[in-house]
Specification:
The longest helix is centred in the middle third of the chain and has 20 residues. The chain has 3 helices and no strands. The protein has 121 residues and is mainly alpha-helical. It has one domain. The protein binds zinc ion. This is DUF4913 domain-containing protein. InterPro entries: DUF4913.
Length: 121
């Protein structure tokens, strides 16, 4: 077994859970997203969907890199667009869940709810 430097939580670098949640809330609130054919599936309780959490966490990690490297255009095209094609598809993690949670007359953007205190990623 190899000794991984990443196994001690105190040595793990990267965003905290709070930073990740804040990023999801802020970033997704800016997406002008809901397509009129209802093909974009989403759930305000995104944190309850494990695949979505994994995909969003990797998007966040790459977003941080892209910000550092001033390569946001590539992030949108090479990372966001490719994950979004799966994330929001009828066959993606929100396929059975998403639009049913959105109240009629709601703002036509993606909304989020804060995860419960006991949630961890
Ligand atoms: Zn859901």
């Amino acid at each position: 077994m190899s000794q991984s430097a990443g196994q001690n939580p105190e040595t793990v670098e990267g965003p905290t859970q709070e930073e990740f949640v804040a990023w999801v809330q802020e970033f997704l609130s800016r997406l002008e997203s809901v397509d009129r054919s209802s093909n974009r599936h989403w759930c305000p309780q995104w944190w309850a969907h494990t695949e979505a959490v994994d995909r969003l966490a990797t998007l966040h990690a790459q977003w941080l890199v892209a910000m550092e490297e001033n390569s946001m255009s590539s992030w949108w095209v090479d990372h966001f667009d490719r994950h979004a094609a799966v994330l929001f598809s009828p066959h993606g993690p929100f396929g059975d869940c998403g639009t049913a949670h959105v109240a009629k007359g709601a703002r036509r953007t993606l909304t989020t709810q804060r995860p419960p205190a006991e949630w961890s990623w």
